[in-house]
Structures are given as C-alpha cells and as structure tokens.
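Interim report, section 4.2 (structural modelling).
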Amino acid sequence: MSLSNTPSSSSPLSNLWLTRPFSERSTRIFLTVLALALAVVTVLHLALPAGHPLHVSSYTVTLLGKYLCYALLAVAVDLVWGYLGILSLGHGAFFALGGYAMGMYLMRQIGDRGVYGDPVLPDFMVFLNWDSLPWFWHGFDMAWFAFLMVMLAPGLLALLFGFLAFRSRVTGVYLSIITQALTFALMLAFFRNEMGFGGNNGLTDFRELLGFDLRSDATRLGLFLASGVALALGYVVCRGIVGSKLGRVCVASRDAEARVRFLGYRVERVQLCVFVVSAMLAGVAGSLYVPQVGIINPSEFSPLFSIEVVVWVALGGRGTLYGAVIGAILVNYAKTVFTGVMPDAWLFALGGLFVVVTVLLPKGIAGLMSRRRKADSETQLKEATP
Amino acid sequence: MSLLDALADRDRVFDFLVPAASPVDVRHGPILYLEDVNVSFDGFKAINNLNLTINDGELRCIIGPNGAGKTTMMDIITGKTRPDSGQVWFGSRHNLLTKNEPEIASLGIGRKFQKPTVFEALSVFDNLELAMSADKRVLPTLTARLSGEQRSRIDEVLETIGLEALCGRQAGILSHGQKQWLEIGMLLMQRPRLLLVDEPVAGMTEQEMERTAELLTSLAGKQSVVVVEHDMGFVRSIARQVTVLHQGSVLAEGTMDQVSNDPKVIEVYLGAEEEA
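Predicted structure of the assembly:
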C-alpha cells in the first residue's frame, strides 16, 4: 500500500514499472539487507574453518536457502492476499507443481545410475513395471524445458482456475475454500501411483543439477545464492506491480470491487493476471526448494502447508511484501528451533504466536516499523501546515 | 480543381473508418431523452410510462416520495436495469437500450451513488488517477505513467472539488462531505457529458451542503447534471428546473415555485413541504 505519490518523474529509474522499485527507499533497504545477508553467509561459510564458532555449516546454508524459498512463496501469497484481497489457501499447490517440474528434471538426470539401472525410466516406473515413459515426462531431460515448465505448469493451472473462478465472480471465503479444495484434490491425485509422479514416495534420490553434484558444498551454496537472487527478483517484480497504476487498481478492487468495475476496469482480468504471476513465483520458489531438500512428495500439496504460508504472511504483515519475507523467515526459524528442542510444543507455539500477533499487532511485524514511520510523517505534516 | 487535388484534399477516405464512438449529438437540444418507459418488478410497476427530457448543460432536480422510481430511473439510464418497453436516447445518436454498463459509462454518463464509495486505502490523488479516462486494459495499466496533461487535469479537478490541500492524504480519513466531493471529482475525471447524482447531501452539515450546492451549480453548463434529492431546502437552493416523480411517472415539471404550488404535488407530499 504505497500511499506516497510516485517519485519525481525526472529520475530515469521511475520510468518503467519494473525499474521504479529501485527508486523506492523500502526496496533499496530490502535489497541491501538481502545482499548483505547473502554475502555474510557466504563469507562465513567459505572463509572460516569448520571448527570456528562463527562458521556456517553446509547444513545451515541449505536450511537458510530453504527459508529463502519459503520467503519467495510468502511474497507471492502476499501479492494476491495483501494487495488483491484474494486469500489463497492453495498456494502450496503452485509451489509443489514448480517443485515437481524441477523434480522430474532431476529424476531424468539420474539416468542409468538408479537402483535398476534403466537408462530412461526412473526407478519407481521400473518398479511399477512400466515399459515406457508417460507422455508428460518427455522433454524433462532438457534443462530449458524443465525450467520453463517450472513457471508454465503452475501458471497454466492458475490461469485455468482463475479464469473460471474470477469470471464467475467467486471471491472472499468461497474462493479460499475452492483454493483449499484445489490443493487437496491435487494432493490426493499425486498420491496415486498411476498418476506417474512417484505416488506417496514422490521424487527423490537426485544426483545432479545442470551437471553439478547436489551433495557437494559448492552446489549447496550456489542453490542458496540462487534462492536469494530469485527472492530479490520476485520481490522487485511484485514491488513493480504494486507500485504501478495496476497495483492501485488491485488495492482499489480489494476494497470496493464493484466501484472499480464501474470505473471501466475489467477486475476479473486484473485478478487473473496478478494471480497467474503469483502462481509462477510460487512455482519458482518450489523449484529451488526441491534440490535443496532433496525430495518432493505429495505432502507439499497438503492444505495445512498452504494455511501455514498464510500464517507467515499474517505474522509478518500483510500488504507490505517485506513483511511476508520477515514472517516466513522468522516463523520457519522458530519452527526449526522448536522442533529441535520440543517437537510437541511447536504447533502450540505457532498457534500462540498467531493469536498474540493478531491481537497485539494487527498489521504484523511490518506494522511496527510503518507505525513509527507514520508517526514521523504525521509530525512532519503538522509542522508543515500552520 | 483537379482530381488529384480533390483526392489529396480529402481528410477521410471511407466513412466507415470513422470510429463508431462518435461524440454525443445534441444539435436538437436534449442530451437525454426517455419516452414511454415501463419497468415492472414481479408485477409491481416501478416505472409507468415515464417521459423525461434533459437539455444539454441543464441542471435538473428530480424529487419524489420514496418508491417514486427515482433510483430505478437512474438504473435504466446507466444500463443496470432493462426497461420492459420504451426508448432511452443519449443525444440523438446513442440508443442506450442497446448498450451495457461500461459502454454507457464510456459514452460519458457518470453516476454518483448514494453512499460514497471512494478507495479508502488510496490517496485522494490516486483515487482521481484511477478514475481518469485512459486505456484500462491490464498491461497498459501496468505500464501507465502520468503525462503532464493528465497531471494538470487531476489538479484542475482537485481545485474544482476543493481538495487540493488533501491531495496526498488517504481517502479513508476524509469527512463524509469530502468523500462525496471526491466521488464527484472521480466522475469529473471521466469528462462526462451527463452527471447523475443520487442524494448528494444526505448526512451533510449545513456548510457542506452549501459547498455542494456551489459545486453542482458550477458544473452545470459545462455538463448536464441530474440530481435526485429528498432535501427540499437543498433543491430550492440549486434548482432551476424540477421534475416531480410519483408512482413511476412524471407528476409535475417546472420551476421550484411552480411545482411547489401545484395542488397535485401538495397532495402527494401531504405537507412534506414544511421541511423546507
């Protein structure tokens, strides 16, 4: 919700929607902090010996990479929830689809080094006595095709789903329920062995990505950095959208949809486009997540996961984008700590945190920061007007 | 003149290439023309043989008791409700019954609803920017940038509605009256030929009512304004021509004095005039 008017049009950065974010203070701060964090982790990982107390282990690097993927997913959810007012409880489906597309590529990369040694068929297909590759597995041996599908598969699903939902003007809680049903249906479908996605075991045992060994420390660091770059790019794209006139149309249709329609905007098309962009970002997040955790299975489609994502965004602060990043990283860090110390207490802690934030910080953690800034600008305004 | 000159002289080759969305033709006087319009909802006749003519640049007040069909009439003009029979023309060229809501809006008919609906999370400036007539498809909206001309148009409207000082503030903090003006401003951004204003002063203070009266009278002339209002005092302060609706048709028409002395009107209002 950028309330300030667009910065002076003389600055060349404010010319295009995609470069305009770079002239915003919040984006610059965000990108600087992110770049610093990536650099610090890289230096601590590479420069310090393994025994040093400040050394960041390879395990931690991968863990942080996972958080960054979650953060990108949270940004995607915040784009549709915070700015468009569409509470998607099924964004995990797009995340998982992106993950599966990447997983299929990684499976094909295994080649004949699998347990059964089949040069083409992944192990689970040999195990199921299939004699040829299903049609939808073709092409996934090529990296460019797989990377394209990482965005296209979730994008197309979002396009189809959104077209039907928004055209019929399904909004609010009904839409949330349908998105929830969507991800649940996909979970059930992917659990079936006949679907050809490895059933409930999913896809695992990956070896190489673009020729790099997934088990090597260097590849793990590379994936962590790639996740950071993806988060930065995704953030800038979202920021560009919400800072443009289209973003203001989004906010307007979130608050008074009928009025926007009356002004002549095709609200359902705006919703559809932004929803598809968001789904693609979620797909990218999923695709970077899978090689880092080493497995993708249908549990990623679980409705619970999608709801958790919404909780991250709510905790961090809805409608700010950077709040979503803060929420995703904090909650997942807390989850890692809690599940290590007291596994049983985690869900109670998450629930408690959610209640506390909703009651005390209705605008999330990001609300704390903007509250201070608002107070500043309020006093400035009072001083300016006699 | 040689044939070549004649060809070179032509600024237009084929008539059918001229865009269909031609300006409103008001050479014959009326900008809005309703004839024998009938609407019934489940057997209830909301509009009964309604005839109404609004001239270009006119400020017309429409009054009438509850259920007289004022809002239904607005719905018909803006395409929200389809009449069972009758004709509705905008200028002498556009048959409004063949058009849908967005088409009618883009022809230049703006409607202000009773309850102010401005975008509260956006600034006053942004509210006006969104309302501006522009390419409203998704991609052009994403890449849209304000030109100097558009910026000065927004400033001009801000001045008309008297909200220059609040230009950067969130619309949610505006008072009720200011929201109403902002919404009128949003209509003005679309450069309408005809403004339909539904109960603009409901819930306003005296000063706000005065400001609104000034605003509406200043708009008339440049565009035609149709005001539906209950408040007789307000109607008296702005109206030149008043139309009284009753049970879906026109009961009386004329200046405020003529109308308020009409025995039929007095009977319908049963002394409701005392309010004024």
